[in-house]
Fold ABC transporter ATP-binding protein.
Amino acid sequence: MTAAEILVRVRDVDVVRRRGGARIQALSRVGLEVRRGERVALLGANGAGKTTLTHVMLGLLRPTGGTVEVLGGPPGPGLAAGELGAMLQESGLMRNVRVGELITLVTELYGRRASEEVLAECGLGELSRRQVTQLSGGERQRLRLGLALAGLPRLLFLDEPTVALDVAARGRFWEILNERARSGATVLFTTHYLHEAEQFADRVVVLRAGRIVADGTVDELRSAFTESRVSFRTDEPLPDSMLRGLPGVRTTEERDDGTRVLTTTDSDATLAALYAKVGGTAGTVPRGLTLTTASLEDAVATLLEEEH
Ligand SMILES: Nc1ncnc2c1ncn2[C@@H]1O[C@H](COP(=O)(O)OP(=O)(O)OP(=O)(O)O)[C@@H](O)[C@H]1O
């Protein structure tokens, strides 16, 4: 891995904010490197620090400590050149202007794309003559996406980008971003919709109270922080002590109808050992076996419930 492939380098970043007389540690010793082509989801509960970290990476907020490098330097020049694109929560939009005029203004500022191309990409063609003040919440989000993509950015920061979008618009939104990512864009986004992270991100970073508490692929997080559930029946009862001794097993239960339910941190190992033990013995072979694997939602919930 060469240094040139790292587009974002956040080191030991602290952010202290003040509210009334209180001192709030919004970020604590945060370190993050993002490589070219990655799609990174920043997850965490309300107030965990996702927006603060996004603002720090965009240079909108100066950290109290630590360093931030984006595209090899401070974020300002990248933003000015259109190489960095951003869609922020509740960012204001210019008033008394039509959608097409606003997109044209920004594409001309960067000089890298035709406005018609951006309007078509974001499905804004039909809204082109509409006043910005007359857009619905979802339409405003689409316009914000158009503005973020106007400079053909290499690096995109999106803070809760799909918040006002209906299901169809969300699907279209992720299609557009997938297309951008396939063309080589690197994307960092925050979301509370974990299935979006599951589907779109190849890496997930979880923040809790200003600290990064997990960083890995969706699969890594699922297997590190959750259990799968294995259930089955047998004609002859199996001793609980044997089931408890299987690798990965955390809990065992026997339902009224005789179904055995095991929770396991390693379902592959549990099942292999189970079959090895009962294999060939009449009446003890599992029937009606079901395996329920954990979701990213379960993994993040487990992580956020854990003690600090
Ligand atoms: N302008 C501000 N002034 C003071 N404190 C702030 C300010 N903005 C955020 N905070 C505090 O900083 C901490 C981190 O907030 P941040 O907005 O980064 O969280 P978040 O993870 O983006 O939350 P959400 O999911 O609600 O958007 C919180 O304790 C929040 O109350």
